[in-house]
């Protein structure tokens, strides 16, 4: 399918390392048909020198899906973007927002915000290499630089290189002294900065990321920007996404119940284990993404316990999902 077949990026789920793998994305897709899904960040080195299939394989049901790349060498990024398009991804996203020291040592992530010309060159190289959208995810500033001019000028230069979509995490990235987790919590959220970016760049698609948890919050933000990217709330409370299609995409046809989602995961698990079990895939690698599905319902704790029990999961029998489901009272 081509990008034009999909609806707007009104809502998306953020790329989250160790979380938004292909099994998580398939699970999320069962809950919302139209929400855009993003891969974990994949470095250019992992694709150029590693197991490409392991990093890029996904299920067709995951569309619309974006591949997030980490890197800072235009030629390498262009080559990896070609791989992403060849594999069937609908968008290539460049990571200019990750604040971890490990990423900084590779000279990419949030530290790239101080090198807007390099980012522009990277974007141009990727756009010249592929026909799908190339987008950028970044912060509103780095370290103590809270000047609006900094992020405005960054977007301005990268937009001149052809980028039309910017996903803006409404916090500064503190490159020294804070862990990645602390960088998601300690720097204050400044949504007004992202709102102003949309006013200054009305021709661009501006998506807001950071601290958004509910559909009501999404509704408020999209009064000011083009879309919203949700992070950890989508992972910890995945069933909140069940109202997204009807409310934000005018499509009530994909509504499903938590029980339906559990039952739909059973044939998927069976298929994945048959394909990749010999390569080390265990059922826990899939069920771990489902633990928050029943949050707020009687029996949710027991549901989590069963789907985390190594003894029960060791059999590789998806019927354990029915046992977990039976513990929940709807």
TrEMBL record:
Keyword annotations from UniProtKB, A to Z: Flavoprotein, FMN, NADP, Nucleotide-binding, Oxidoreductase, RNA-binding, tRNA processing, tRNA-binding
List of residues binding FMN: 15-17, 68, 137, 169, 209-211, 231-232
Superkingdom of this protein's organism: Bacteria
Enzyme class: oxidoreductase
Matching InterPro entries: Aldolase_TIM (IPR013785), DUS-like_FMN-bd (IPR035587), DUS_fam (IPR001269), DusA (IPR004653), tRNA_hU_synthase_CS (IPR018517)
Active site location: 98 (proton donor)
SUPFAM superfamilies according to UniProt: FMN-linked oxidoreductases
CDD domains: DUS_like_FMN
Residue(s) at site: Interacts with tRNA: 95, 184, 301, 304
A UniProt-annotated Pfam family: Dus
MF (Gene Ontology): flavin adenine dinucleotide binding; FMN binding; tRNA binding; tRNA-dihydrouridine20 synthase activity; tRNA-dihydrouridine20a synthase activity
Record field: catalytic activity: 5,6-dihydrouridine(20a) in tRNA + NAD(+) = uridine(20a) in tRNA + NADH + H(+); 5,6-dihydrouridine(20) in tRNA + NADP(+) = uridine(20) in tRNA + NADPH + H(+); 5,6-dihydrouridine(20a) in tRNA + NADP(+) = uridine(20a) in tRNA + NADPH + H(+); 5,6-dihydrouridine(20) in tRNA + NAD(+) = uridine(20) in tRNA + NADH + H(+)
Cofactor: FMN
Job description of the protein: Catalyzes the synthesis of 5,6-dihydrouridine (D), a modified base found in the D-loop of most tRNAs, via the reduction of the C5-C6 double bond in target uridines. Specifically modifies U20 and U20a in tRNAs.
HAMAP family, A to Z: DusA_subfam (MF_02041)
Family, per entry: Belongs to the dus family.
Protein name: tRNA-dihydrouridine(20/20a) synthase
Organism: Oxalobacter formigenes OXCC13
Underlying gene: dusA
């Amino acid at each position: 399918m081509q990008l034009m077949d999909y609806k707007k990026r009104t809502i998306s789920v953020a790329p989250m390392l160790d979380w938004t793998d292909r099994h998580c994305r398939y699970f999320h897709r069962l809950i919302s048909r139209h929400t855009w899904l993003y891969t974990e960040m994949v470095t250019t080195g992992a694709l150029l020198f590693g197991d490409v299939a392991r990093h890029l394989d996904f299920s067709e049901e995951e569309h619309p899906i974006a591949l997030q790349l980490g890197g800072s060498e235009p030629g390498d990024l262009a080559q990896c973007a070609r791989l992403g398009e060849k594999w069937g991804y609908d968008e290539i996203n460049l990571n200019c927002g990750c604040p971890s020291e490990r990423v900084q040592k590779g000279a990419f992530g949030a530290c790239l915000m101080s090198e807007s010309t390099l980012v522009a060159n990277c974007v141009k190289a990727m756009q010249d290499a592929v026909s799908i959208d190339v987008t950028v995810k970044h912060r509103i500033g780095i370290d103590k630089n809270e000047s609006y001019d900094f992020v405005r000028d960054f977007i301005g230069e990268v937009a001149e290189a052809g980028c039309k979509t910017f996903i803006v995490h409404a916090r500064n990235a503190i490159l020294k002294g804070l862990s990645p987790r602390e960088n998601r919590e300690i720097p204050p959220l400044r949504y007004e900065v992202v709102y102003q970016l949309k006013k200054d760049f009305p021709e661009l698609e501006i998506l807001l990321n950071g601290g958004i948890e509910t559909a009501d919050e999404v509704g408020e933000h999209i009064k000011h920007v083009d879309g919203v990217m949700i992070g950890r709330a989508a992972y910890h409370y995945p069933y909140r996404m069940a109202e997204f299609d009807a409310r934000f995409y005018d499509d009530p046809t994909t509504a499903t119940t938590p029980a339906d989602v559990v039952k739909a995961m059973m044939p998927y698990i069976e298929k994945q284990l048959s394909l990749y079990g010999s390569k080390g895939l265990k059922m826990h690698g899939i069920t771990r993404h489902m633990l928050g599905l029943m949050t707020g319902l009687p029996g949710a704790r027991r549901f989590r316990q069963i789907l985390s029990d190594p003894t029960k999961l060791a059999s590789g029998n998806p019927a354990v999902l029915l046992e977990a489901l039976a513990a929940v009272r709807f």
